[in-house]
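Exam review. A common question shows you a sequence with its C-alpha cells and asks you to describe the fold in words. Practice with the pair below. Do the first one on your own.
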Amino acid sequence: MYKLAFFVPESHLESVKSAVFASGAGRIGDYEACCFQVRGEGQFRPLEGATPHIGKTGALETVEEYRVELVCEDHRIRAAVAALVESHPYEEPAYDVWPLSSLASLPEA
C-alpha cells in the first residue's frame, strides 16, 4: 500500500480527485473515493522558462490550495500518479508518494 498526497487549487480540486479515484486509488475495504483534504496556502516563484498556470515568471505567488491524501494499492500507484499529473492544471504539480507498513510488519511491543 502507498499513501499519495498532492496539492491542488480549489478550482480543480474535484476534477483532479475524480481522475485519481478513477485510477482505482482511494479504496479502503468496501469503500471508494476515500481521502482527507485540508485547505492551506501554497507558495512558489516561477523561474525563467516556466509557463505557470497562476502567477508570473520571477514573481513570488501564494495560492489557496488543498492538500489531498489517500491510500493506493501497489499495482495502482503509477496509474494514480499519471492521472494526477494529467488532470492537474499546474505545469509541475507537487505530490508525495510513500510506502505504508502493515500492522503485521511492525515489531511486537
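Now try the second one, then compare your answer with the model answer below.
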Amino acid sequence: MTSRTKKRIVLPTRPEPPSIEQILQDVHGALASDPVFICDFSDDSLLSNNATVCEREKQYGQSCNYVDMNNKLKEILIQLKTKSVALKCAGEKLEEDIENLREATM
C-alpha cells in the first residue's frame, strides 16, 4: 500500500479562545493556592520549542514549591509567636523567682 492510497486524517478545527469575561471569571473563581500564569501565545513558534515548554514546566514547579513553602512559613510563624509568648512568660517567672530568692536570703 502506498502513501497515496492512505486516507488523510482531518483534524477538527480549534475552538475559539475564551473571551476576556470568561478569563476574568475563571481567575476570580480560582482558589488562592492556584498559581496564575499570564503567557503570550501569539507566537506559535514558541509552543513548538521543547526548551520553552520545559522552562514553563520548571516555572510551574517552582511556583508550586513557592506556594508550599509560603504556607509552611505561615505555620512556622504562628508556632514561633506561641513559643515567644511562652519564653517571655518563663522569663518573667524566672525574674520573680530570682527576686523572691534575693528577698529570702536577706
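Model answer, second protein: The mean pLDDT is 82. The two ends are 112 Å apart (CA to CA). Full marks require stating both points clearly.
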